[in-house]
Every structure is written in structure tokens, then in C-alpha cells.
Amino acid sequence: MSLLGRLFGDGSADTDGPGSAVDTGTGADLEARGHDQPRVGLFVDGPNVLREEFDVDLDDVRSAAERYGQLSFGRLYLDENAPSGLIQAAEARGFEVVTTSGDVDVKLGVDATAATVEEAIDVLVVASRDTDFKPVLEAAAERGLATIAVAPGEHGRSDALRNTAHESITL
């Protein structure tokens, strides 16, 4: 049975990609770590997801991640020129907004990898269409985490992310 199947009992998460099966982690593992639900870390690549052509709602992104367990944190990464209205709207929806003057991808990748290594989460959800996050998903999977790739739409989906993650969702 796959990791996600073990986390959910029957593997019935609603997804659109084949993903790869991993046979690691159980409900007993979660209990041994002191929690009864998988802890989900959601990392959203704002510049690649929140584009006019995709019409993505942050509530939908959050709901997609929450299907996999309890959201430990949801972070939206934006560049320093992000409109203050977007930042306020994201914070009102419970997102921690991280702005950076450098490359958003680097900060998101470092933070997601740190959460994985520090064992702060059991499920890594990356919302992006950028193949730069493929190594982040691979590193998380190597450490026994379930990995989910969220695409902002059919024409915004990265096949590399979809094929690397255990599960994929297209909004």
C-alpha cells in the first residue's frame, strides 16, 4: 500500500495523477510522533500560481492541502513588489506571507526542505507550475514524506512535478 493509502486507510484521496507508490510510514508512525493526523506543510509559489490566466482562489489551494491532514502551516511566497491588497487577502485566509527581494523559488525551496529535514511535517504540498521544485519533492519523498503537487490549471501544470509527487491536483 502506498504512503498516502496508509495515511488515509484506503488511499481514496481525490487526485488527478498517477504518482509513484512509496511503502513507508503508517498511522502508528504518526501516533509515535505524538499526533493523530498527518501534519501538512503548504508552500505556494505566488508568482507562478496567482496569475490572471489561472484565476486561482487561495481558499481552493488551502482546501486541496487540507484533504491530506491538518495544516501545520500555509505559506505564500511573493516578491517584494506584491500588491498590499494581495498580502492582506492572503493573511485574512490564514496564510503566512513571505516576501523576498530575491528569487521566490530559492526561498520557498529552502523553507520547504528545512520543514522536511526538521520533521515539522508529514505531507509536503507544493503549489506551483515551476519544475525547479522537483528536487524539493524528491528530497521530501526520500525522507518518507508524502508529496503533493498542486497545479494552477491544466495549461499551468508541470508534468515533472506531477510525475515526481506521490499525488497531484489540478485546480
Description of the molecule:
The chain is an alpha/beta fold and 171 residues long. It has helices at residues 3-8, 27-32, 46-49, 58-66, 84-92, 104-117, 134-142, 159-164; strands spanning 39-45, 70-79, 96-100, 123-127, 146-151, 167-170. The chain has one domain: Rossmann fold, CATH 3.40.50. Helices cover 37% and strands 22% of the residues. It is globular, with a radius of gyration of 15 Å.
Brief rundown of the structure:
By secondary structure, the protein is of the alpha/beta class.
Structural topology:
Blueprint: H1 3-8, H2 27-32, E1 39-45, H3 46-49, H4 58-66, E2 70-79, H5 84-92, E3 96-100, H6 104-117, E4 123-127, H7 134-142, E5 146-151, H8 159-164, E6 167-170
Parallel strand pairs: 1-2, 1-4, 2-3, 4-5, 5-6
Strand order of the largest sheet: 3-2-1-4-5-6
Radius of gyration, whole Å: 15 Å
Fraction of helical residues: 25-40%
CATH architecture: 3-Layer(aba) Sandwich
Terminal residue distance: 26 Å
- How many E-type strands? 6
CATH homologous superfamily descriptor: 5'-nuclease
Structure characteristics:
single chain, 171 residues, alpha/beta, Rossmann fold, 6-stranded parallel sheet, 8 helices, 6 strands, 37% helix, 22% strand, globular
